[in-house]
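ugh finaly. both done.
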Amino acid sequence: MPVKGLRPVSVILGAGLALAASAAPAAGTADTSPPSVPGTLFQCPLPGAPGSGLGVGVSLCWGAATDDVGVTGYDVQIKQDGVFTAFRTTTGTGSIVSGLTLGQSYTFRVIARDAAGNAGPPSNEVTANANYLSGMSPSGPPPSPSPIDRTPPTRPEGLGPYSVYINGAAGLTWTRSTDDVAVSGYDVYAWIDGAFSKVPAQVSALADDKVLAIVGLTPGRDYLFYVVAKDAAGNLSAPSDLVRQRAMVEPPAASPSPGTDTTPPGTPTGLTSVTGMDIPGGVFLAWYTVGDDSGVPPKYDLFRRTDHGYAYEGENGMPRDIVSGLEGGKPYTFQVVARDAAGNLSNPSAPYTAVAQPGGTSSPSPSSSPLGCRVTYATTTWDGGFTATVTITNTGTAAVEGWRLGFGFPLASQRVTNGWSAVWTQSGTGVTAENYEWNKTLKPGQSLYLGFNGAYTGSNPKPAAFTLNGTACS
């Protein structure tokens, strides 16, 4: 779809956080070369001594950057409202970030600086949940494991357009989601340049359990949106229905320029499945033809709802489509949108759920290709407690889409009390760690860093073997 020009909502609304300006080079020097990118940023527990009180936060480590003169420090940045802000400078390659909210998700990155004030490019981004930083008091009993929250929020319902009279603003409103603990926020996605992307949005509460989001986009352009709710444990809801909204033009033009088409096509209706054709693992969909004021038949874009978003099934010149590669006997929900030559979008059709014909693709395993993996396990131990740092590396040739780490404690007295960067569970001596949505993909050669705090009595031997999706790791 020819829809371009995402603009930060902070520009549209005159709000947002400003990044600290880089210092000017020192007088009399000719050093204009910035440092390199820091080495991989990852969560590496730096526990306090037993009985210390570092509070709740995240501990970070990264590899040293290089510079033609010398690196003098690193800015640790945190992402707020879609913008990274420097909040701490350190000379080392690690930092404890305390004073955070327990269980809340935070995103960080690091940049290196030299003596001349040159700032290097940012490191990779790391998203982590804040957890307890202090060590366990030797005289205190080990804490009881916290229940693991695996229940996602309810999907946002009633998503619809909302008029916001600010140039470039697209307003959306929906009914507030609910959660067994609490909804921590919402992610708004827009269809831009042929793909859905998460966009910065100012989200606020309205009366009658309604939520308002304002997104800054290109004035006068049509966009498709959906919304996903999330909780502090990283659980994501199913996506809302799709909705069309046009970014506001303010002040409004008296009339469109001659020859400018701003009228959207009609809304597709009658979306249904067609029988009589054998399509194992697929569905044949059709809908009623719609018109456009240009006199040229519009194109149609078909979307399929997934667990937390929408998959694009392609463009069609006729009001029908065959979708294949599905799991036979499983229901799938679709919406279709009409698009004219000027890029104007219709309102999406009403959602329609069809059951794929028997046969075809079976449920995929987390990784269908043979995988290779390597796991390292390191502990910092004190009397009665320990912190374990676990690194998973994909040594295979294919990406792992969804992972489950498994191992067994040698002793029944060892147990997990709380963890990070994964959903941790323990049954007897058996321990599993499963991915969150944000870290489900493990590319070839990539490593993931996770860990947990634990308790033990007597000795604390390390696990002898690890598996990833049932495959033994080295």
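ok and the 2nd:
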Amino acid sequence: MTLSYTKIIPFFVLVLTVGTLAACAPVKKVAFEQNLNHPEDAHPAPIKFTKLKLKLPVGMEMDIYRHGCFLSFVEVGRHYLKGHINQSLIDDSFVEALDAQGYDLVSHLNLSFDEEADAESLRSEYKVSAKIIDAQINVCKTPPLFFKLPPADPLFFGKNGLSGKLFLKIEWGVWDNLRRKTVYKTTTEGYVHSKNTKIEGVTLMVNEAFAMAAHNLGAKKEFHDLIFYGTKPPQDWNKKKKRESRPRIFDPQERVVISNPPLSKVMLIDHVERTSRTEVMVQAGSGHGSGYFISSEGHIITNAHVVGDAMRVRVVTAGKEEKLIAEVLRKSVPRDVALLKLERIPEDLEIVTLPIKVEWPKVSADIYALGTPKKTRLQGTISKGIVSAHRKNFRVFGTKMDFIQGDVQTIGGNSGGPLIDAHGNLVGMSVAGMYQFSTESDSGLNLFIPIEDALKYLNIELE
């Protein structure tokens, strides 16, 4: 049987057309933005990159093509791209891209010792996060033979390497370590066209496209002026429509004056049951922390991180006798303290407040922490330890503050609970600790806010 050239030629034209279209899936192309100028003696705030995350829609296909021959291709989803994100390379690319533009990067690149790395990390005033929110990719495997059949695994590219194009859209977030809030969000884009075949082709392309997006972040005026000059970005970056706040019952700036009874000189063991009734469990959202009564009018102090952005929280009194609602009057995020007030005080509720001792307990003195560690059913737990050190102007989470350091055992849920001395006088409150992360056990290195600071930052007057 003889085939006509008039039939064969159109067939090959169709094949070549399909192959060309498959090999040329569109990938958005972007370029480097121009660097911004700043004085040579400028002193930008230290910034630290956290991590690159993937935030692509479930089921998204990115038009990636594998060429065992020019007609062989497959489409894959977001999980394929996730497998080619090398966090170490990404970290280095961010540092190099912004360092070249004059930014002050908190980095471990040139550090040899853990102690150096720890000290370096504490310098950061801003943290920068990144998320991939869009991606387009078209890569080719260079085949050893023109008409080699594709292997069984459609994602196996062999040892011959990859080349191609990649586009990334990155969403950036900037967290202010000193003010403890997100201060800026924006997006930039990156692109790479790798013409040379490389064994780790996709990983390197992700890295190069991210590096361009990082450079373009540094070239954004709002980001540049925030880091170099402390200029507050315009608020239109936060396009989320905020709901009107529910009406308040109390004035957030109400004057709070508390009377201080004489200090206790009786050993705690002789009145521990009554003293422990000052502690409450504070529940916001799905989490919980601890707190304590500071006035007979239903004022309660806890940590700011326990209540977060909540206006109202649930308060469970000692012995779970009452489940009440409290309004968050005010808070100080840098000092991590918050003032609450019960919306309603039951007639039969006995509010126990403790004598306040503003003088710091001496190093080696006995101290006791009250709270609800780990589980809500453990409310009313008392732990004993000693004062290990006085930490003045000590940096935690980027902010320098004063702390009482103690080895009294605390764990998640204790936050905001009272710290008392051997006679039951209120001397501070739980706030932070270091843990053995492999076992989630307490390491005996815990920090407490001095009660004098808690009152000062919440504008509470002591008679």
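summary for the 2nd one i guess: Residues 293 and 300 are 4 Å apart (CA to CA).
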